[in-house]
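Budget justification aside, the reviewers requested a transparent look at the raw inputs and outputs of the sequence design task funded under Objective 1. We therefore reproduce one unedited record. The lines immediately below are the structure tokens for a 516-residue chain.
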């Protein structure tokens, strides 16, 4: 309970410095403001499927601060026959899933069904406190069947430590300076057999990734940027060779690290031509400085690789029960999604789909936490073209706008971080050369916590609880239709998606449809 209250205080304080949730409940006020959107051109373009979630390998014995938060959420033991899990993933059609995490660098792949395949076992004398674990061919078949049926798009993280020797040492990178250094070239023989099996079975992998948190800001173990680049080049050559007869080869992704600019710049320069996706991890609960730095590095090095957030859950080390799995985290989650999109981030992977206390789904029941519905609404409504947006009237209103995903129009996201103030937000839709235009109707999706409690695990859509039924079917997410072009009413501590389908901008692909 002390940890839960402590993290909530940290969350409130950090976000308060950014204009977040600074007020406790008191006398309600009303503030008038204007949402200004420049629709002359997009300021960034995300992937069509921007929303992503991770699934890890942690066994049930993974415990921190006296709490064991992972249950049966590992890729090795996740119940793939659970209807709630299946429906939650299929609702996105498709959901991007990143498979990996710290223990991917302790994983070996079964290459023959006669081989013994042992699970991870907790052992403090071993690297990352676990023995080597094994992914069986049967389990890999089951996972791919699930991904195909649920229409998921997945990226798989390979073990980057095979063949390396781990020595005592240190590095200047990282807040605590890693005390272990991995040296030597990557031995890809086990990965090669695994990839060839995957190809022979016809499984569709979007990207093969290499390693997890082994460079950048080193936490436990460090790999030099030059060596990591050489290993990435080896993976690129391997993928090209194995998929040479295929119409499409998977992309190559790395390094899935916390950002350290000097290390990342050297790695980008040395791995030129071998990398499709440069991925970083963020646990910030605040400003988006790492997003801006990565985009600057991509521009400076001239790489063709695009930027992903490969992992972000707000608070690391499992998150905190009662905080990172409640409505309050939706303020952070949707705000950082909006910021990441403006910095041309192509994909944003939430830690986790299930597992820990920061999952989109509850670890024990697979029932959705509030952020699941935030992610689903973003996925269904927000298109890939990002528009420059600002809110005038209060520093506690966040505003983002994208061209609509389907079928056309504009979607505005408004986040009210103030617990005492209702915002009346006028949508001043304009283009540089044409000035303000009016629209005659819109659809609104208002998200609020049950009974106004921001630590509630139940979210209301337009006043009605979003609850899975007994068969595991997701609830219908119906908007309210508002006629006229009056202001949007954004209640205290609430989130609103506004879809204006009979209006569009020059920046949007559907320009000309429904424009007066």
């Amino acid at each position: 309970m002390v940890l839960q209250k402590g993290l909530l205080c940290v969350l409130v304080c950090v976000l308060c410095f950014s204009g977040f949730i600074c007020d406790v409940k008191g006398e309600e006020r009303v503030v008038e403001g204007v949402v200004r959107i420049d629709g002359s051109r997009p300021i960034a373009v995300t992937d069509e499927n921007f929303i992503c979630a991770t699934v890890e390998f942690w066994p049930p014995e993974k415990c921190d601060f006296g709490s064991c938060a992972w249950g049966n959420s590992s890729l090795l033991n996740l119940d793939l026959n659970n209807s709630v899990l299946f429906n939650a993933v299929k609702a996105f059609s498709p959901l991007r899933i990143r498979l990996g995490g710290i223990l991917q660098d302790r994983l070996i792949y079964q290459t023959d069904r006669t081989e013994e395949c042992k699970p991870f076992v907790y052992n403090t004398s071993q690297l990352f406190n676990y023995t080597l674990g094994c992914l069986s061919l049967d389990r890999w078949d089951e996972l791919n069947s699930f991904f195909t049926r649920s229409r998921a798009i997945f990226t798989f993280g390979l073990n980057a430590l095979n063949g390396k020797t781990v020595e005592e040492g240190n590095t200047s990178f990282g807040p605590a300076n890693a005390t272990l250094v991995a040296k030597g070239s990557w031995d890809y023989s086990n990965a090669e057999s695994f990839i060839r099996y995957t190809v022979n079975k016809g499984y569709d992998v979007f990207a093969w990734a290499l390693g997890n948190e082994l460079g950048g800001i080193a936490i436990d173990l460090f790999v030099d940027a030059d060596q990591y680049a050489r290993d990435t080049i080896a993976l690129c050559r391997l993928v090209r060779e194995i998929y040479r007869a295929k119409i499409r080869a998977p992309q190559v992704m790395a390094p899935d690290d916390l950002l350290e600019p000097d290390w990342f710049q050297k790695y980008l320069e040395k791995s030129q031509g071998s990398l499709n996706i440069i991925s970083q991890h963020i646990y910030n609960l605040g400003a988006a400085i790492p997003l801006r730095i990565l985009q600057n590095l991509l521009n400076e090095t001239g790489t063709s690789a695009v930027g992903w957030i490969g992992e972000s859950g707000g608070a690391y080390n499992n998150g905190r029960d009662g905080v990172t799995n409640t409505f309050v985290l939706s303020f952070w989650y949707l705000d950082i999604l909006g910021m990441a999109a403006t910095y041309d981030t192509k994909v944003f992977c939430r830690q986790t789909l299930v597992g820990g206390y920061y999952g989109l789904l509850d670890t024990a029941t697979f029932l959705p936490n509030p952020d699941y519905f935030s992610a689903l609404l973003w996925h269904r409504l927000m298109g890939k073209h990002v528009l420059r947006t600002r809110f005038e009237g209060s520093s506690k209103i966040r505003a983002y706008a994208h061209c609509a995903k389907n079928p056309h129009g504009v979607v505005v996201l408004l986040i009210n971080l103030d617990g005492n103030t209702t915002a009346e937000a006028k949508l001043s839709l304009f283009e540089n050369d044409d000035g303000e235009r009016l629209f005659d109707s819109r659809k609104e999706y208002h998200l609020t916590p049950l009974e106004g409690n921001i630590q509630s695990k139940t979210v209301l859509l337009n006043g009605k609880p979003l609850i899975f039924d007994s068969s595991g079917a997701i609830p219908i997410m119906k908007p309210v239709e508002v006629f006229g072009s009056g202001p949007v009413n954004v209640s205290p501590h609430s989130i609103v998606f506004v879809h204006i389908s009979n209006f569009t901008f020059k920046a949007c692909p559907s320009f000309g449809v429904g424009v007066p």
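The longest strand covers residues 382-392. The chain is about 25% helix and 25% strand. Computational costs for records of this kind are itemized in the attached budget.
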